[in-house]
Design a protein that fits this description.
heterodimer; A: 110 residues; mainly beta; six-stranded mixed sheet; five-stranded antiparallel sheet; 54% strand; B: 115 residues; globular
Chain lengths: 110, 115
């Protein structure tokens, strides 16, 4: 059974701090990795995707991938209260489907 | 920015009835998907659809479920003889290419409540 694991949180950070969200996956053949943000009662909203080992930056967000350790992370710099949401890690292993983790709830307090 | 649109936003149905959930994928996308999320649980893959046929389905997607692209724009999920445990948010998604190459974009979802 292919699994994606995330700490459910909540992860609480003060406004302006860096939030670090982590995800591990079980399938070593996984090829592409996605971070979605989900506000309560809403749909997943794509933040970033990464295919290659290393870092990928987009504005305040940085995705980090380490395939050897089967680990992907999302850093949010200068965290804002509007970043408070559940962050979903999703993994694709070469088929059509995404396998989602349970998500990490992030709380950014003023 | 183009969006995936889903209707209705909320559907309430008696157990045993049939429901059809509708989706309009992003216009130049070729791959379409349905996912569901039971309250408090993870998002789960149901089915993917490409070139007018199912390309992959999960164990959840049994004979109770079917998908169709009845015209050039709509993509539907039909659930026959609904059960209480079918209550969930159902998300449609689309991508221009297979998810290994391009990310999936999700619609706002349909909340299905089975009474």
């Amino acid at each position: 059974q292919k699994e994606v694991e995330q700490n459910s949180g909540p992860l609480s950070v003060p406004e302006g701090a860096i939030a670090s969200l982590n995800c591990t996956y079980s399938d070593r053949g996984s090829q592409s990795f996605f971070w979605y943000r989900q506000y309560s009662g809403k749909s997943p909203e794509l933040i970033m995707f990464i295919y290659s080992n290393g870092d990928k930056e987009d504005g305040r967000f940085t995705a980090q991938l380490n395939k050897a350790s089967q680990y992907v992370s999302l850093l949010i710099r200068d965290s804002q209260p509007s970043d408070s949401a559940t962050y979903l890690c999703a993994v694709n292993s070469g088929t059509d489907k995404l396998i989602f983790g349970t998500g990490t709830r992030l709380q950014v307090f003023p | 920015e183009p969006e995936v649109t889903q209707t209705p936003s909320h559907q309430v149905t008696q157990m045993g009835q049939e429901v059809i959930l509708r989706c309009v994928p992003i216009s130049n996308h070729l791959y379409f998907y349905w996912y569901r999320q039971i309250l408090g649980q993870k998002v789960e893959f149901l089915v993917s659809f490409y070139n007018n046929e199912i390309s992959e389905k999960s164990e959840i997607f049994d004979d109770q479920f079917s998908v169709e692209r009845p015209d050039g724009s709509n993509f539907t999920l039909k659930i026959r003889s609904t059960k209480l445990e079918d209550s969930a948010m159902y998300f449609c998604a689309s991508s221009p290419d297979r998810v290994g190459n391009q990310p999936q974009h999700f619609g706002d979802g349909t909340r299905l409540s089975i009474l």
